[in-house]
Amino acid sequence: MNGTESAAEIVTAVKTGATTVRAVVELALSRIRQHDGRLGAFTDLVAQRAQRTADAVDAGPKGPLAGVPFAVKNLFDVEGLVTRAGSKINRDNAPATRDATLVTRLEAAGAILVGALNMGEYAYDFTGENAHDGASRNPHNLDHMSGGSSGGSGSAVAAGLVPLALGSDTNGSIRVPSSLCGLFGLKPTYGRLSRAHSFPFVASLDHLGPLARTTRDLALSYDAMQGFDEADPGLTKRPLEPTESRLKHPIPTGRIAVADGYFKGEGVASAAVAHVAAALGVSRSISLPDVPAARAAAYLITMVEGASLHLDRLRTRPQDFDPDVRDRLLAGAMLPGVWVQRAQKLRRVYRDAVVKLFDEVDVILAPSTPMQAPRLGQKTAMFNGIELPVRPNMGVFTQPISFIGLPVVSVPVWLEGESLPIGVQVIAAPWREDIALRVAYQLEEMGAVRAPVAKEFANG
Amino acid sequence: MIEAEKLMTAAADVLRLKLDPEYEPGVKSHLEVAVKMATLLDAVELDDEAEPAWVYRP
To answer: How many CB atoms lie within 10 A of CB A317?
Structure first.
């Protein structure tokens, strides 16, 4: 083993006795110490905890994630660490006294938490640049963005420091770094995975989920994290719906369509969708209604709910925010309430119209981001021929989907001749994560999508 | 275009937000984007019966 194995490979090695969990964890810690100085992915290591947990797993029964090192965006509570949520302000808080529910569930399955990861301040970011901790860098080209706001999660997994990381996604914050770093990322249905004991951003839009280098690893971790938790008032009471055992069941090509109109994209974004559609033999397209209004509604809800969450901090410590985040939140505090009410009404109407499309298809394909990773520090880019700010606009294709909580797997595409990856969203009906994962697996098996460890970090 | 400065000044006062002059260009710029977004939202006709998509469950 060289430390860049997938979660499934590690589980097999542990269960067959080819290695110990302690050895896997020591290798992961060693690689993090060796490489993270150049990546900026980690903000905290929990080495002693990881070693203790590894020894306990070595001594006990082996769960479905036995020995898999993982790390979490630093908005997840980790007992003994301050939940900084990418901010300077939260560093004055007391350390968390317990773990987030999803951390507990992954460890119950045998996984080993090794640390917490860099992120955009308060998750209001698509770049992976943090004003206080520095940028998390894209392992495929260190001069480029990892994407945000789960930038450290993308960077750590793409560099092979861990096979699995957790992120959050309010408007695209799992799918954007998955796209820019060339990973598989799962944003489950809204209300599917517990958000308990994580720092919120926009409660009515927040999701948590995994990033990994294989679909199987996504499914293994997702299965381990499902289940009711009364500590999250938005969580479903649906029974567990395991996905890993059903990955090999293909979806009929006739039930897959490409989103057209707003989602058409241009350049590499459009080419990536065409590449995936061609691999699946899909020629059908489908139109989602009122997408610009839906994106606008998500944008406004985010501004206002985000501002509401941070209003006291905006009053007392405005100078301690990242200026880009602060100014958006201040503006959000000032918006008329009727806009949010209207946005929430549109949310239901738009949801009903889009869900009806799933009578005709099982899967809709759309770009994850409008472009590959911009350069670090880049403030603007061309979006459909118009120069716009990078920070809010990398989510133009993700935002209208998370707005209504649909499950999505972002799959990584490497177009011929391109040195950076880009993602495609595989979108399914509510609660059908299994379908999105099966299509992603199908694409991975045929070699149309892949998530290699970045070359510079691939050899130990 | 709205007079973002007037909205900003009035809202900051009501909300007891102290706006450093250095913040004002950024805040104004975001308010102007928000107004464009609200225009897109207003363009969709909603029935009087349209229910908001709140999560609240009794």
So the answer is: 15
